[in-house]
Amino acid sequence: MTSPTPIRVVLADDERMVRTALRAILSAEPDLEVVGEAATGAEALSVVRDVRPDVVLMDVRMPEIDGIRATEQILATLDEPPRIVVVTTFENDSYVYDALRAGAAGFLLKRADADALVQAVRLVARSDSLLFPAAVRTLAAEHARAHPAPPAWVAKLTEREGEVLRHMARGLTNAEIARRMGVGPATVKSHVAAVLAKTGTRDRTQAVIAAYEARFLNGG
Amino acid sequence: MTSPTPIRVVLADDERMVRTALRAILSAEPDLEVVGEAATGAEALSVVRDVRPDVVLMDVRMPEIDGIRATEQILATLDEPPRIVVVTTFENDSYVYDALRAGAAGFLLKRADADALVQAVRLVARSDSLLFPAAVRTLAAEHARAHPAPPAWVAKLTEREGEVLRHMARGLTNAEIARRMGVGPATVKSHVAAVLAKTGTRDRTQAVIAAYEARFLNGG
DNA sequence: CGGCGTCTCCCCCGTTCGGCGGAGGCGGAT
DNA sequence: ATCCGCCTCCGCCGAACGGGGGAGACGCCG
């Protein structure tokens, strides 16, 4: 059942102890072979280019180039790139998203036990026919589309104008906004006019549209 | 390295041949044991309740109760539920999302080779410390928020009313909408009134808000 | 001190909007 | 043949809206 040629693995982590531990775990398996190590993202790039491994265990936090960027560059520059498993200590969500978007084949926590580690390596080496393959990428892409950079006018709104826009985006009239904010209707009119000017819109409807497009509303 | 007690697996698929094939593959591994089979979602539920497996390979399409619902119910009703791997022929995105949302531990294509299959079973049995665990759930949750069920009023809008609402949501006035649609302003007024009535809103701004909240606009 | 931005409020004016009721034509369903 | 839904349009009215211009108060900063 064991394949004739072992799975060639490169370890990229700035801490020597981590590399040593990983090497010890992987070397105990006859079908796995650690063929290189790197302590920085840049080093990882050149090592991978030289030894052409099947799998890379890539730490996120590393000097010079972090693991995410190293992953991107490896996948972008090599013809038949290795499968890359991003390794980190904490399951920071944005790391996971970044790793997915960068094209990593998997995401592994350092607290994972030895058995999970070796099975992860075998798994990613075997291709992505398993466990949320391509679809996970589309999820990550969707996540990226869901968090675009906000337009410039958002920062230019004063606090009061922002409040008014929020109320406008809830469908309130000027009079209602005035009541809720404890000011006169004329004041609200002024704020609305300022909002229209800064958003480059001509009426409250267009302003609300702009607010939605800019994802100006936090809840919703 | 092999654990003393084998991993207990239940197969749920309405096609006998698939079950036989899976059983053949899994039985060849000393650390895996097929302890039950089910041909329907309902059957899967009772079998799992009886034999208490570690892992369930669950087909999506099944009579009576589909695999997704069966997964939901198993996870909801059992105290220490098994890890469930959803199996299907095509990598339909919505299936993947549904599986994730239902709480499945993995997603497997039927075209996956035997080795990938057994490693998948071993992997999910070993817990989710690996390959996009909890974070994948949050992604799925985000996807669910991004694609909620549209409100009832969407279906009740006539074609013309829908067009008008789209134009309203682009910030056009009644007169502009009338020009673009090649009708009189009075006609647009009628359509707008109908839209307001059916959406339960009192002015165009609130209607546009409703359109955005309902994701009535396809692009954007 | 003197500008500057912000928040507050005022008046006037024309436009737009939304609510009301009505009407005719057209096509599908019963 | 009749009803019903949809699309098309009409007039009238009050309310809300947006533009214009202005003004006083406050605080910040150079």
Q: Which oligomerization state do the chains in this entry correspond to?
A: homodimer
Number of strands of chain A: 5
CATH architecture of the largest domain in chain A: 3-Layer(aba) Sandwich
Q: In CATH, what is the class of the largest domain in chain A?
A: Alpha Beta
Pfam families (chains A, B): GerE, Response_reg
Keywords (chains A, B): DNA-binding, Phosphoprotein, Transcription, Transcription regulation
InterPro entries (chains A, B): CheY-like_superfamily, NreC/VraR/RcsB-like_REC, Sig_transdc_resp-reg_receiver, Tscrpt_reg_LuxR_C, WalR-like
Organism (chains A, B): Streptomyces olindensis
Short description:
Chains A, B: Residues 150-215 form the HTH luxR-type domain. The structure is a homodimer of 220-residue chains. Chain A is α/β, with parallel strands linked by helices and 220 residues long.
